[in-house]
Amino acid sequence: PMVNLVRYADDFIITCENRETLENEIKPLVAEFMAERGLTLSEEKTVITNIRDGFDFLGFNIRKYGNEILTKPTKKAEKRFMENIRKVIKGNKGCKQESLIRMLNAKIRGWRAYYQHGATRDSFHRIDHQIFLSLWQWAKRRHSKKGERWIKDRYWHNIRGNSWTFA
């Protein structure tokens, strides 16, 4: 049977057409190969699963839908990214909007570059909405005596037809 291996640093995936081959032939060979080098397979991280059920690898969830294999950011990766973004926003309550935008853009660009090759539309939409909510709270805290319209006009502008651009 055809067997494929994908490795990144000390993480790897082995794919095969049937579970029995993986369990009875491939896994023992890999365990032996690693033992000869003083390494062991992590029982916690070693999972044999059907690709239709999906699995997580390097921050991506990989799953087969029909005849397509889709990769998208894991929920854990989304959560970790948003925790990082919120930390930046909350830690910079007094900074200028321009400085905050620079800090956030660097993080957002990095996250986008890493995940851009997957099926990311829904994930990016969720992230965008969460960032908007965090920025809205940031702006409201800075001007607690001002109305929502004033806050919107102060921090959000119409750029290329999007009237809710934080700029």
Automatic annotation (TrEMBL):
Please name the Pfam families in this protein's record.
GIIM, RVT_1
Q: Which residues form a coiled coil?
A: none
Question: Which InterPro entries has this protein been placed in?
Answer: DNA/RNA_pol_sf, GrpII_Intron_Splice-Mob/Def, Mat_intron_G2, RT_dom
Q: Which PANTHER family match?
A: NUCLEAR INTRON MATURASE 1, MITOCHONDRIAL-RELATED, PROTEIN YKFC
Q: Which family does it belong to?
A: Belongs to the bacterial reverse transcriptase family.
* Residue ranges constituting the Reverse transcriptase domain according to the UniProt record: 1-62
Q: What is this protein called?
A: Reverse transcriptase domain-containing protein
